[in-house]
Write a structure and sequence with these properties.
The protein is about 45% helix and about 20% strand. The protein has 17 helices and 26 strands. The chain is an alpha+beta fold. The longest helix is centred in the first third of the chain and has 35 residues, at about 55-90. The two termini are about 30 Å apart. Helix 4 (about 120-145) crosses helix 15 (about 505-530), helix 6 packs across helix 16 (about 535-550) and helix 16 (about 535-550) packs antiparallel against helix 17 (about 560-585). The strands form seven sheets. Strands 6, 7, 8, 9, 10 and 25 form a six-stranded antiparallel sheet that branches. Strands 16, 17, 18, 19, 20 and 23 form a six-stranded antiparallel sheet that branches. It is found in: Endomembrane system.
Length: about 600
């Protein structure tokens, strides 16, 4: 199957050939110019509007000075970010979707994190960003009395990707360095200002009118799980189990734990009901665990198990047991809390080999069939207590007398710093859904999730940072899902409340998406343009700033010194960006 990127590249080649043919025939007007697939549209219109807007020059210069300060801080941060990213790509290359070359392109459908479903909102945010960015450059040309030769729009084929203002080069060179820096910084300043306005609206009245629907949002069903077999799918919302309402994941787990029946009737928000035949399936496992992810457990020592409670009770009765799986295999293994003996831990001090894996089966005679059982047993101890630990190391039974150590923020003792949740290094789920983190995402953008387990009081800066990473937080933050706005399955998990409810969910979701992506893409445009390399604004600001500093130094050839600094930084930045994108795969 031909990829979206291949179609895009083929379209660009076809567009370039067509543009060359039309230009050769002389049918293209002079104000349209081609450079490969890049099209620029030039105009003189708008100069009178800029002249009028530029009249309160004292105000604009104050705004420009503020923008210069912001731009210099972001430039320094961008420089450090690129250098650090390039360094990490060399010493710790980790190929992932984040550094796929196609994901460096802000093209919906090509970039894995920019879905086609929100392409209109992304393009709107990009268009607004281009207008305010280049409008800022044009405005400050007139504020600083620099003439404008032309301005216009830049496109890749027919898609707008940039705008431009062409100042008169002679007047630009004659202007003082402060005027130049303010003019170059004006674009990114306006991008950050537009992003601020969009995010304030999103974090305030829009997010405040949104709420998570009652029930458990299903991001997906685990392949081969009970929920998957019952037809519960991505985008569903579970509202009740055997007639007992559940409004969040915590209530769902509590109801399933209390209800140990194999079959449960699951009600969905669309009014339908389906029967789930529960079966414990492994959903997480360490490399050395006796069972791998996706394995369905059917019995322990011949006793059939259908729920996680069944498995826990069977494990409690057998220190070593044969676990039967759905495919007919039987694995004999000790059943207990899996951990690693960290260097310097009480377990190592008691004689356990450092860095070895251990399955703890009892603590002072109390059965510890799982990590939670071990945690419960340890909760009744104190630092300094001496306990007897029975466990299995490399399949051999071992017994240690351990003096428990202190643990930060707790009164109980500690054996070692690392224990894996579940039994013997694997975790099971007898239901099989992967919950979509709808409440957490809503909190990130300023809404009230009504989640009693969620953190409260995110600052504005934290929310802005969250907006930056939400489109790829599934990869970068370990959430399992990216948040592209209120689109796709996410639209099933939210509702509109308060005065805006009269508008309906679709208009409010569209507005929320437009604000989300306008804020996001203008942050990205502003930050990227602050990278100190030509031809970006950061490169021009670097040159003008370097000239200003070098002019005060006792060096014989100031022009050469300025060129040396700007070229060195530019080459470093280009090399760093290339390494960030291609390095993880080259050095892996």
């Amino acid at each position: 199957m031909v990829s979206t990127l291949t179609w895009v590249l083929a379209g660009l080649v076809a567009y370039t050939l067509l543009a060359m043919a039309l230009k050769a025939r002389g049918v293209v007007p002079d104000f349209i110019r081609f450079s490969g697939p890049i099209t620029t549209i030039h105009t003189q219109r708008g100069k009178i509007i800029l002249e009028k807007l530029a009249r309160p020059k004292r105000f604009w210069r104050a705004w420009g000075n503020l923008g210069v300060g912001i731009a210099l801080v972001v430039m320094a941060g961008s420089f450090l970010l690129v250098i650090f990213g390039a360094y990490q790509a060399i010493i710790n290359p980790q190929p992932s979707a984040l550094n796929e070359p196609r994901n460096a392109l802000a093209i919906p459908g090509v970039n894995d994190f920019l879905p086609l479903s929100v392409a209109p909102e992304i393009l709107l945010g990009l268009l607004l960003g281009l207008i305010v960015h280049e409008g800022g450059h044009g405005l400050f040309c007139r504020v600083e009395d620099i003439d404008i030769e032309s301005m216009g729009l830049a496109l890749i084929a027919v898609i707008p990707v940039g705008a431009f203002v062409e100042p008169d080069e002679d007047e630009l060179l004659r202007s003082d360095r402060g005027s130049q820096i303010r003019m170059y910084a004006a674009g990114v300043t306006n991008n950050f200002a537009l992003s601020l306005v969009a995010l304030l609206l999103l974090f305030g009245p829009i997010a405040g009118s949104l709420a998570v629907v009652d029930g458990v949002p299903v991001g997906d069903s685990l392949p081969g799980s009970a929920a998957d077999e019952a037809g519960i799918d991505s985008g569903d919302v579970i509202t009740a189990i055997d007639g007992q309402s559940v409004s969040n994941s915590r209530e769902l787990q509590a109801v399933l734990a209390e209800n140990d029946r194999r079959s449960v009737d699951v009600s969905l928000d669309d009014g339908s009901t389906t029967t789930v035949e529960r079966a414990p399936i492994v959903v997480g496992a360490v490399q050395s665990a006796p069972l791998g992810v996706g394995t369905t457990i059917t019995a322990v020592n011949g006793t059939e198990v259908y729920t996680r409670g069944d498995l826990d009770r069977a494990a409690r009765n057998h220190t070593v047991a044969a676990i039967q799986t759905e495919d007919g295999e039987a694995v004999t293994t000790p059943l207990g809390a899996y951990g690693r003996v960290t260097a310097g831990s009480p377990l190592e001090a008691a004689g356990a080999p450092a860095n070895a894996s251990i399955i703890v089966t009892s603590l002072d005679g109390q059965r510890t069939q799982s990590a939670s059982a071990l945690g419960e047993a340890l909760s009744r101890t104190s630092p300094g207590d001496q306990v007897t630990v029975v466990g299995y190391v490399d399949g051999q039974r071992r017994e240690y007398t351990v003096t428990l150590a202190e643990r930060d923020g707790a009164d109980s003792g500690v054996l070692t710093s690392s224990f894996r949740a579940g039994i013997s290094g694997f975790e099971v789920n007898d239901f099989g859904i992967d919950q979509y983190p709808a409440a957490t995402f809503l909190e990130f953008i300023g809404g009230d999730s009504e989640n009693p387990n969620a953190e409260r009081g995110f600052s504005f800066v934290q929310r802005v940072f969250a907006i930056l990473i939400l489109p790829f937080i599934g990869v970068a933050g370990g959430f399992g899902y990216n948040f592209a706005g209120f689109t796709g399955i996410a639209a099933n998990f939210y509702t509109v409340q308060g005065p805006l409810a009269a508008l309906g969910t679709t208009p409010v979701f569209l507005l929320a998406n437009a604000l989300f992506w306008t804020g996001w893409i203008n942050l990205v445009i502003g930050q990227f343009n602050c990278v100190p390399t030509f031809p970006l604004d950061g490169g021009h600001i670097l040159r003008a700033t370097t000239e200003s500093i070098v002019s005060r130094l006792p060096v014989p050839d100031r022009r050469r010194a300025t060129t040396a600094v700007t070229v060195a930084v530019t080459v470093s930045m280009i090399a760093g960006l290339v390494l960030m994108v291609f390095g993880p795969r080259f050095f892996a």
